[in-house]
Amino acid sequence: MFRIGDVELRSNLLLAPIAGYCDLAFRLVVRSVTGRFALSDPPRPLPPGVAEPGVGLACTDLLCPQAVLRQSDKSLWLAATCPADQPLCMQLYGRHPDVMAEAACWAEAHGAATVDINMGCPVDKVTKKNGGSKLLCEPNLAVEIVRAVVRAVRVPVTCKIRLGWDDASLITRTLPPRLADAGMAAITVHGRTTEQMFRPSVRLEGIAEVVEALAPWPGVKVIGNGDVGCPEDARRMLDATGCDGVMIGRAALGRPWIFRDAAWYLASGHKPLPVPRAGRARLVLEHFQLLRRYRGDRIAINTLRQRMARYSAALQPWPHLRREVRYIENAEAFEDYLQAGIERLTAESPEPTAA
To answer: In Å, what is the CA distance from 337 to each residue of 279, 325, 329?
Structure first.
């Protein structure tokens, strides 16, 4: 078991809070992969400590505290959860300690098992409001926010940071110890500066510096983030940095089974059987059905049209998939189209062999 504060997680793999993607429907899809597909051929016991390999903690999209407290429709949807969506982290971004603390209380009351403070988002619409990674330029304020939120809630409080605003203002050795002193239970480190955005490659040595800086606080977990696209990348992140866990973001958008694969690989050193293409298509259908349930037909169709660009690579060969879904206007017809594809893939694809 992996723990953040007093919260027990089934694995040390976390779903990142990706703006525009990590809604309730998608989180439920990610959670559902666990234990659904054969892991090996011939069947063999799961490795010790892996009861049901998969995601340990999933996070909401970024939540604006003022909008949460106003209970705007958009914020209520972004924060929506259900009993199957646990344990859940709700992530807040902002710069006003009292407002952040009040919003954290709201999050705790509405199902958050942990509350995360975003100090890592590099996009302009967040940093121009002096939130996200802009807080790395104001370390005293960052510490004050953590202290206020920790005082306000009983659940563990975590932070997500980058290495600094730019190479001239790295905070890997300075800010994390101060956040730990303020009561932070875990920290996720994206191994780039704000200036770097998402290119070039993640800097594992920067994450290792945070691990080293927090060595005097053994109870504070360090979670590495960035460029984890396969189980081997997760292993490399842990080995090269000494971090305790791994957060996966963009790779999960088209392959929600990556947590199942990575958990098995980390525990056994072997990859499990790949999820069959028909099984992958079923997950896409389930994603669509969940979107219909929680958001309605129109948003479900529009969302899956956009997300098919992520899913399609793992479903090939499926001729004209991305083009054809653009012209389906009816939700029932959309489901029928996906179901027909599942039936074709089931008939065409033999059971995979072990990777």
So the answer is: 15, 8, 11
Whether the pLDDT of residue 287 is over 50: the answer is: yes
Selected residue with higher pLDDT from 105 and 120: 105
State the SS3 of 21-90.
Answer: CCCHHHHHHHHHCCCCCCCCCCCCCCCCCCCCCCCCEEEEEEECHHHHHHCCHHHHHHCCCCCCCCCEEE
Q: Tens of pLDDT along 196-232?
A: 988 889 999 999 999 999 999 999 999 999 999 999 9
The one catalytic residue in 22, 59, 89, 121 is 121
**What digits encode the pLDDT tens for the residues 114-168?**
999 999 888 888 887 778 899 999 999 999 999 999 999 999 999 999 999 999 9
Could you tell me which of 253, 197, 322 has the C-alpha nearest to residue 30?
A: 253
Active site residue 230: no
* Contacts for 45 with CB less than 8 Å, ≥ 6 apart: none
Question: Contacts for 120-125 with beta carbons within 8 Å, 24 or more apart?
Answer: 120/160, 120/161, 120/162, 120/188, 120/190, 121/19, 121/62, 121/93, 122/162, 122/194, 122/197, 123/19
Q: How many CB atoms lie within 10 A of CB 161?
A: 24
Reading the block at residue 19, the tokens are: 């703006």
CB 305 within 8 A of CB 326: yes
Mean pLDDT of 230-244: 97
pLDDT of 1 over the 80 cut? no
Percent of the chain with pLDDT over 70: 94
